[in-house]
Amino acid sequence: MKSAVENLTPTRVKLTVEVPAADLKPRLDVAYKTIGAQVQIPGFRKGKVPNRIIDQRFGRGAVVQEAVNDALPEFYTQAIAEHEIRPLGQPEINLTQLPMADDQDLTFEAEIDIMPAFELPDYSSIEVEVEPLALSDEDVETRMEALRARFGTLKPITRKAKTGDHATIDLSAKIGDEQIDNVTGVAYEIGSGTMLKGLDKALRGTKAGDVVEFTSPLAGGDREGEDADVTVTVQTVKERELPELDDEFAQLASPHDTLAELQEDLRKQAEQAAKFEQGIKARDLVLDQMLALVEIPVPENLVEAEVHRHLEGESRLEDDTHRAEVTESTTKAMKTQFLLDALVERDEVQVDQGELIEYIMMTAQQYGMNPQEFAQSIDQQNQVPAMVAEVGRRKALASVLEAATVKDTDGNVIDLDEIDPEGEDEELGEDGVDELDAEVENEADAEVETVEASADDAEDAKA
Questions:
Q1: Using alpha carbons only, how large is the chain's radius of gyration in Å?
Q2: Which of 25, 10, 19, 111 is CA-nearest to residue 64?
Q3: pLDDT tens digits, 233-291
Q4: What are the backbone angles phi and psi of residue 212, rounded to the nearest 5°?
């Protein structure tokens, strides 16, 4: 097999591949056998049909198509390996010559988006400046009120409902005589604005047993945006009664014995959260500087495809302003991934099992899922290598952050090593970690890798 590569753009190449007739002959022989085993021709046993009869009955083209479809992924993969090409996405295959005679070669072209090549600069001298740490009494009070709300109780009221009360309602919506929606026993916090427009206003001033009607545009479904006649029956109205702020509450809501100890703990949490936000800002500024120091080309058609998918999902394909915003963010995200993947490769970043488990636990909590179930899900979807790659990118960025100088606008140096995210309310015990360990132990040693086209990509562009 012969192959040559032509650079079309910094992110796209064209492979020209020539497969000699002798190399393709075994595939043609297999194709004849495959077709012969599938057809029944009078006078011949199944599987014993001569090649010339198959050509007469079905045409040489059917055999060639079968052979090429079978062989193309292998020859394509062999060619990209020979030229050390790192593909992104699927190739566009163009068959330029088919072996319609025994002595003819197969030639094809494949245009492919590739990982761009660029030189990484020295990032050791990066300096960024962030706002000073800001912590107020209101931050602590907000945390305390949120904690009180978690331990509050709902009690029925006889007064008229107001913002903040909790109602149980039955709701129906009609357009003309057509019933669009009908739900019963829905819990709703008045003033939250999470359901139909106008619902909060309609519920204020009501009591249990009241029926209110109003018109509202539908928020979803096939008739989204159309005005519907809404009828709401109020079943119950309750208010949240908050516990008193005393030592008893501190013992109920925390491991502390006194309210003073709880308040001090909440202050520390608020301070740590503020430091964490400061660290996030520093990270973003460092990453912006990293991107500014190197020119990274991106495959325009991949950006366009992702932008189209995003806008189509939002039903905003005609929104040019939003398209520009999404294009900018998508381009930046792609450049960031290319940059961090290059750092991973240059610095030979490795991901161990403990780091992978920690990331899976954190991601599972963000999705509100059990970590073991989340690990099983990503394993079934073959997403563990992508998780490993993401951990590798985070480690690569962390190494640059460690070398960067971060100061606030008052001139104080900020040690990012002292910043940790806030602890979650629920943690895995030892048994949970062991179970999660078992879920990923066979995947944790996977090397960090970028998205590469596989042989299956070529199959999607068969003759």
A1: 32
A2: 25
A3: 999 999 999 999 999 999 999 999 999 999 999 999 999 999 999 999 999 999 999 99
A4: -125, 150
The span from the CA of 219 to the CA of 226, in Å, is: 9
pLDDT digits (tens, 9 = 90+) for 403-415: 999 999 999 898 8
The distance in angstroms from the start CA to the end CA of the chain is 19
CB atoms within 10 A of CB 411: 8
CA dihedral 142, 145, 147, 151 (to 10 degrees): -170
The answer on pLDDT for 422 being more than 90 is no
Give the 3-state secondary structure of the chain. CEEEEEEEECCEEEEEEEECHHHHHHHHHHHHHHHHHHCCCCCCCCCCCCHHHHHHHHCHHHHHHHHHHHHHHHHHHHHHHHCCCCEEEEEEEEEEECCCCCCCCEEEEEEEEECCCCCCCCCCCCEEEECCCCCCHHHHHHHHHHHHHHCCEEEECCCCCCCCCEEEEEEEEEECCEEEEEEEEEEEECCCCCCCCCHHHHHCCCCCCCEEEEEEECCCCCCCCCEEEEEEEEEEEEEEECCCCCHHHHHHHCCCCCHHHHHHHHHHHHHHHHHHHHHHHHHHHHHHHHHHCCCCCCCHHHHHHHHHHHHHHHCCCCCHHHHHHHHHHHHHHHHHHHHHHHHHHHCCCCCCHHHHHHHHHHHHHHCCCCHHHHHHHHHHCCCHHHHHHHHHHHHHHHHHHHHCEEEECCCCECCHHHCCCCCCCCCCCHHHHHHHHHHHCCCCCCCCCCCCCCHHHHHCCCC
Nearest by Cα to 58 from 34, 42, 35, 37: 35
Judged on CB neighbours under 10 Å (0-12, 13-18, 19+), 102 is: exposed
Distances in whole angstroms, Cα of residue 118 to Cα of each of 346, 403, 404: 12, 22, 22
Residue 364 Cα distances to 80, 86, 368, 371, 393, angstroms: 36, 31, 6, 5, 19
